[in-house]
Design goal:
Elements (H helix, E strand, L loop, with lengths): L6 H10 L7 E9 L6 H11 L2 E7 L5 H6 L4 H5 L3 E5 L2 H5 L11 H25 L3 E5 L20 H17 L4 E4 L1 H8 L1 H4 L2 H7 L8 H16 L5 E4 L10 H4 L12 H16 L3 E7 L2 H10 L12 E5 L3 H12 L6 E5 L2 H10 L4 E4 L7 H7 L10 H4 L1 H17 L3 H8 L1 E7 L5 H10 L12 H8 L4 E10 L2 E13 L3 E9 L8 H15 L4 E4 L13 H5 L2 E3 L2 E5 L10 E5 L1
Parallel strand pairs: 1-2, 1-3, 3-4, 4-5, 6-7, 6-9, 7-8, 9-10, 11-18, 14-15
Antiparallel strand pairs: 11-12, 12-13, 13-14, 15-17, 16-17
Length: about 575
């Protein structure tokens, strides 16, 4: 995980990749203020690795201004979905990079404001002319000054100039819906300026990122691709022995395992802290371990240096069953797709078993040295998201509450009794600025209970919300055990005599409670109140949305040509176990 293939490998591989064979297609533009040879090829190969057919446009050398400002440029003809704008400090400062103190402080501040305004103008122009996401880099903070160690005593010295520019640029981008910030300065700091910057390459062809580090840069940029395409991971399944602690608890005993403040136990402690941090931002954790259950639970519940406790795991399979069977149970229990999972284990045999039989799951070989666990986890770009919503942050708590629901289900004699005892309340609300990120997220990620699987970015949802012909609603579900958050979305096109359901989806986490009937009845009731005669919907089958295949016909929709149609002269079925509140 820590080593990349060399650039020549990617360039050669890109020649043989068939980008047309993938269902998902993407157009990526690369603009820069310096030479970025090979970056396009690496991105193409990395996109192919995640089943995306990627075509690229690479701007001519240092022509990003012309490309963006000229509305007839090749950039706009290419019509990218994602555009990366990579800039360097020397280009933005010009001669001031070498002679920062040739002008006074007031002039230095004025110069930075001028450059900031130029960047704002580029951003605004691009956003108006393109539907592409724009990812713009910040600027590397110079490590050299002609004033040497005295530079930090200078008011608004060269380092402070770039820090100020980066801060103001970042603050501006925060308020731009389709523009994002790439921390190029951190990239250089992570790998070391002396490694990333090669004077031989610089003087040869204005190459400011050495060829060996272009693949590492591409790895960072692919984080945005995964997030925009909604293919990031949301659950980590973990082994226990030699993964969350050193040693085998069944052999070494509670006090013999390696977990604590001294090496090597401290490596496992920090690994657990990193996992907990991911959990707190919404990544689900689960256990798949061959072990004596009580031995393992004693460590999880009682060990003084255990960071992850029982409440942090949405599912725990600790037994002597094979890990494949356990993994299938975890997937069914959490009701999430296989491609949402990451499996971490110290045993190559178990990793190969899962990788071979369930290839959709990303398997991670952490190696034998626990010192590497944290760096490997930190380098992964599979958990990045363009937006972390309140529902994401609460996800761990929601799955814990779901355990209580499953306990209740096991104690009642039939499903109807279970649903009545849940005391379910659904609130159906018009989309607003608060809910738009979550609505977009659900359209990008929901596969199983989704009529059309149409994918919408945040800016797409905003346009729909502002369209008077469109009705965009979300559903929030609560019951006696807690708040499930925003788990349903409907988008309807309103015409004079009929409404057409564009999108109807529900998180798989709440399937089986007939929430969908409540959502649909609300749409039908609202249409009837507006004097509409019929509501139409489409079902577009995919390999994953079979759970919703019969939903329309079961409710009473009748197939007419390419649509399923419901006449509002018919009775609207409202589930008796639901309390529906439309706001």
């Amino acid at each position: 995980m820590n080593r990349e293939m060399n650039l020549s490998h990617y360039i050669n591989t890109a020649k043989s990749v068939d980008f047309n064979k993938y269902e998902k297609k993407l157009r990526i533009a690369i603009l820069g203020s310096f030479t970025l040879n090979g970056l396009a090829e690496v991105i193409q190969v990395k996109c192919s690795d995640i089943k995306i057919g990627c075509s690229t446009y690479v701007s001519n050398y240092n022509q990003y201004n012309q490309d963006i400002l000229n509305e007839s440029s090749e950039l706009y003809k290419f019509s990218p979905n994602i555009t990366f704008l990579i800039l360097d400090t020397q280009s933005i400062l010009g001669d001031l990079y070498f002679f920062p103190y040739s002008i006074d402080i007031a002039q230095r501040k004025s110069y930075i404001e001028e450059k900031l305004n130029e960047l704002k103008n580029l951003i605004n122009t691009f956003v108006k002319r393109s539907n592409s996401k724009l990812i713009i880099s910040n600027f590397m903070i110079p490590t050299y000054s002609p004033y040497g160690i005295y530079d930090l005593k200078i008011d608004y010295g060269i380092k402070e100039m770039i820090i100020d520019l980066n801060s103001k640029l970042n603050n501006y981008i925060k308020n731009q819906n389709s523009v994002y910030y790439y921390d190029l300065n951190s990239f250089v700091a992570r790998y070391g300026q002396n490694n990333v910057f090669d004077y031989h390459k610089y003087f040869f062809g204005d190459i400011k990122i050495a060829f060996d580090y272009i693949p590492y840069l591409a790895h960072d940029l692919i984080s945005y691709v995964k997030a925009i395409m909604g293919i990031n991971k949301k659950c980590i399944v973990l082994d226990l022995d030699n993964t969350l602690w050193g040693g085998i608890v069944g052999e070494d005993g509670f006090e013999g395992i390696k977990l604590g403040p001294t090496p090597p136990g401290n490596t496992y402690v920090e690994f657990q802290k990193r996992l907990l941090a991911l959990h707190q931002r919404g990544i689900i954790l689960a256990i798949n371990s061959k072990n004596n259950e009580q031995d393992a639970l004693d460590v999880i519940r009682k060990h003084p240096y255990m960071i992850l406790r029982e409440e942090h795991f949405a599912s725990m399979k600790i037994n002597w069953n094979d890990k494949l069977a356990n993994m299938k149970e975890i997937v069914n229990e959490l009701n999430i797709g296989l491609d949402s999972l990451v499996f971490i284990d110290d045993d190559p045999v178990n990793l190969e078993l899962i990788h071979t039989t369930l290839p959709q799951i990303l398997t991670i070989d952490m190696g034998d040295d626990p010192v590497n666990f944290v760096p490997i986890l930190m380098k992964m770009n599979d958990f990045d998201s363009l937006q972390i919503t309140d529902d994401d942050v609460k996800r761990g708590k929601m799955y814990l509450e779901d355990k209580n629901r499953k306990t209740l289900l096991g104690s009642v004699s039939n499903l109807d009794d279970f649903l009545k005892q849940l005391d379910i309340k659904i609130e159906i609300k018009n989309a607003d600025e608060f809910s738009i990120p979550r609505i977009s997220q659900l359209t990008l990620k929901t596969n199983q209970f989704n009529l059309t699987t149409k994918r919408y970015q945040e800016e797409d949802i905003r346009k729909l919300v502002n369209d008077k012909q469109m009705l965009v609603e979300y559903t929030q579900v609560k019951d006696k055990f807690g708040d499930n958050g925003i788990t349903g979305v409907s988008i309807v096109k309103k015409e004079d005599s009929e409404w057409i359901i564009d999108t109807f989806l529900m998180s798989c986490r709440i399937m089986g409670r007939r929430i969908e009937d409540g959502m649909l009845s609300s749409i039908l009731q609202r249409a009837k109140e507006d004097g509409i005669k019929k509501v139409k919907a489409s079902f577009i089958p995919t390999s994953k949305n079979q759970p919703i295949a019969n939903f329309l016909s079961d409710y009473g929709f009748v197939k007419e040509d390419n649509y399923w149609v419901f006449s509002l002269e018919n009775d609207i079925k409202i589930p008796k176990h639901l309390k529906i509140e439309r706001k």
